[in-house]
Amino acid sequence: MALCNNHDNSQNHHECMEFTEDDHGSHLLTKLRAQRADEKYCDMVLHVEDKVFKAHRNVLAAYSPYFDTMCNSGLEEDKRNMALATVECTSAEAMELILDYMYTGKICINADNVESILRGADPFLMSTLKDYCHKFLWQNLDASNCLVVRNLADLYRFDKLHQRATQFIRNQFMQVLKHSMEDFVRLSFNDVLEWITDDKIRVEKEESISEMVVKWVRFDLDNRRDKFPRLLVHVRLAQLEREYLITVVEKEVLVTDNKECAKQLAEAMHQTDTTRRSYCSDSPVLKPRKGRLTDVVVITGGVSENGPLAECYGYIVNENRWTSLPGLPSELRFHAVATLHGFMYAAGGSDSNRDVSNHVHSYDPITNSWSKVAPLQTPREYLSLVSCNGHLYAFGGIRWDRLQQSVERYDSDTNKWAYVSPMLSKRYAMQVTTVADRYIYAIAGRDSFRRSVPTVERYDTYTNEWTTIPSIPIAAEERPWEFPVVESYQHKIYVTDLSSKVYCLDTKRNVWTEEKNRLGHQVTDISCLQYCTSDRNVFLFGGWDACVFNQKLKMWSSIAPPPASTLASACCVLQVPYEFLSNEV
């Protein structure tokens, strides 16, 4: 009996119907994987280290041009017609992962196995698997592995990854030395020479380079001792602190036992003694590296006779001069700035249209550029901004004549702001400082009647709780201070009005005491007062006036005046590569 009537083809013709099994490939691989597990129909044996792997030639040849060629070249076979091959390019553990990948299309790559997987994927000509390894290395590059990643990128011809790793090491050199010293001391002489001759590596002090060279030589002293003079000549000894030269370098046996090195040290001692820190000198031996991270007081925005400003200026602490930096993306006043993870953030404020802003911008000193980040959830001016416990916190402020009690926390990893517990009282223009990288103290400021208040509140970043702290003990007959200057050191907070008194809060006992007036100084224009603190130094800017108080020496010093009025501006201390500080104003 026929399904088709051949006598009338025109009326009973049936077209072909095609059927496709969607998971046919997956089903086939599942069967092959089961057969390999049961050692059924396997026709190839791989010897890797001390382990034996059985597999199917057709699967290996389909996934790897290397095995395809091998299977066509007349492999040695045993009595059961099993092809025999020895693999020496990778480990047994990695070979197991690669074989599983061939049979499943899945592989789990981590920091422990990525290198051994690459050692197999490269000679096996498995380009997709190499791409997976490349993607893992690219996305997981950090200070603890960048030297290894750069070496792998060079070995396996990942050119863009090599460039990225090189730039990362240059920009994060201090963190690399901190987290990858074990890898660094294993670098070749040429690699070490490459880094210490790089003028743009970001280092805080040349002492770090000197110590790095000594550690590298001592790691294999017998074979590296003769290379020390060839490295030391590239260490800018004249940039080392004189005390460090005397107490460390002058006592280093590698230096004293070598006439050439001892001569270099003597020249550096003479240079530091006669031309101490003449950074503007044309002598290359006295100039800092272009990448040297230099302490700079950055003043942002503000108001001039013509309205709000976008300009940013930097005061170079060690040179007592000002330089221009990239301006804010737009004019800004009554905003706040703070640093987090080496970046400077400018938040809130108001623009030239008097619109209160919730914009936040980040300045990256490594690239010398601004970028926009997530905005505050609440627009506010006269706010306070501080970093603590790995986050930024924005406090209080004003939004269209309405005082803000809310507090927002910024997570730079997720680029998001989130509300945390609000302050106990509504205030604006507060001074904020941190203790033990846990507690934030919101001090003074103004209330809803625009009156200065001596209020102090403490926020615990661990518990998200606020606590009332005894107010600044200003006498009842005295007016609360309008612009108190606040500095914290260890577990104590110092507050002063700059002219009459200094009070100290012992944060362990929550007790105020009156101190000797160490900060007795009157700036020209208190209404333009801006200040920031760093390393026991208090930098004060009042209009066109500027000075610094050194807590260690208990001395006031006048410094170069700012190039613009500091009215309604904001400032903080930031480390900026020296190459971006050449433009004097």
Structural overview:
With 585 residues, the protein is an alpha+beta fold. The strands form nine sheets. The chain has a four-stranded antiparallel β-sheet, with no helix packed on it. It has a four-stranded antiparallel β-sheet with strand order 9-10-11-12, with no helix packed on it. A hairpin with a 2-residue loop joins β15 (398-399) and β16 (402-403). α5 crosses α6. It is globular, with a radius of gyration of 33 Å.
Offer a quick outline of the entry.
The protein is an alpha+beta fold and about 575 residues long. The chain has three domains: about 110 residues, Potassium Channel Kv1.1, Chain A (2-Layer Sandwich), CATH 3.30.710; about 90 residues, Alpha Horseshoe (Serine Threonine Protein Phosphatase 5, Tetratricopeptide repeat); about 290 residues, Kelch-type beta propeller (Neuraminidase), CATH 2.120.10.80. The chain is about 25% helix and about 25% strand.
Give me some keywords for this one.
Potassium Channel Kv1.1, Chain A, Serine Threonine Protein Phosphatase 5, Tetratricopeptide repeat, 585 residues, 27% helix, 31 strands, 18 helices, single chain, alpha+beta, Neuraminidase
CATH third-level topology of the largest domain: Neuraminidase
CATH class of the largest domain: Mainly Beta
Strand order of the largest sheet: 8-7-4-31
Low-confidence stretches: 276-280
Beta strands, count:
31
What is the fold's blueprint, element by element?
Blueprint: H1 9-12, H2 24-37, E1 44-48, E2 51-55, H3 57-63, H4 65-71, E3 83-87, H5 92-104, H6 114-121, H7 127-139, H8 146-155, H9 159-171, H10 173-179, H11 181-184, H12 189-196, H13 206-219, H14 221-224, H15 228-232, H16 242-247, H17 253-256, H18 259-274, E4 293-300, E5 303-304, E6 307-308, E7 312-316, E8 321-325, E9 336-340, E10 343-347, E11 360-364, E12 369-373, E13 384-388, E14 391-395, E15 398-399, E16 402-403, E17 407-411, E18 416-420, E19 431-435, E20 439-443, E21 456-460, E22 465-469, E23 485-489, E24 492-496, E25 502-506, E26 511-515, E27 529-534, E28 537-542, E29 545-550, E30 555-558, E31 570-577
Parallel strand pairs: 1-3
Antiparallel strand pairs: 1-2, 4-7, 4-31, 5-6, 7-8, 9-10, 10-11, 11-12, 13-14, 14-17, 15-16, 17-18, 19-20, 20-21, 21-22, 23-24, 24-25, 25-26, 27-28, 28-29, 29-30
Helix pairs in contact: 3-4, 5-6, 6-7, 8-9
